[in-house]
UniProtKB/TrEMBL annotation:
GO terms for biological process: cyclic threonylcarbamoyladenosine biosynthetic process. It comes from Anaerococcus prevotii (strain ATCC 9321 / DSM 20548 / JCM 6508 / NCTC 11806 / PC1) (Peptostreptococcus prevotii). Gene3D superfamilies: NAD(P)-binding Rossmann-like Domain. InterPro entries: ThiF/MoeB/HesA, ThiF_fam2, ThiF_NAD_FAD-bd, Ubiquitin-activating_enz. GO terms for molecular function: tRNA threonylcarbamoyladenosine dehydratase; ubiquitin-like modifier activating enzyme activity. Residues 18-200 form the THIF-type NAD/FAD binding fold domain. This is Thiamine biosynthesis protein ThiF.
Amino acid sequence: MDLREEILRRQDPYINEILKKSSVSILGCGGLGSNIAMSLARCGVGNIYIYDYDKVEYSNLNRQNYDMADLGKSKVMQTKKKIEETIPYVKVYAKDLKINWENLEEISKKTDIFIEAFDKKEMKSLVFDFFLGKKGKQLIIGSGLSGLGDLEDIRIKKIDNVTMIGDFRTSPEQGLYLPYVGVIASLEALYAVKIIEGEANGK
């Protein structure tokens, strides 16, 4: 049994093989993105593309997948490093850049599944507008993940090729706490895995 098989032996071997060949892009590497990236790596997604231009600061440590040694360093590069140290067979492609309409054209060619992981409304809107209705592409967005939340308020909405997950009402002014941010991050990662498995099986 090789390393990948040993690590993933508590998962379905058939799904493991599907995930091994899959690719997902994560736009943003903060509270959502850094946790989504590690979650997908642990599930066995073979290729993960991550994009962000930000650096790690103290206020990130309460909910983002970083530690004191990462302060002042590139979020995408530190996320890549953590994944490679934890799950060494996953291929992580890290790009340190600020997302805009022009570079989304190039980014959109890399994979067919994209996860939006920003906390600024204007960035969420940019990504939504770019991908909505784009043939052959699937976008997953987190919307409303602040405060301590109410789990019964979490919903899933679909608009064409865009899936939105969250409570659709909370805002960052209510505070950002890992338990609730982490729930939304896990659901976004789960939905990506379900898309991969579903497409492979013609669902």
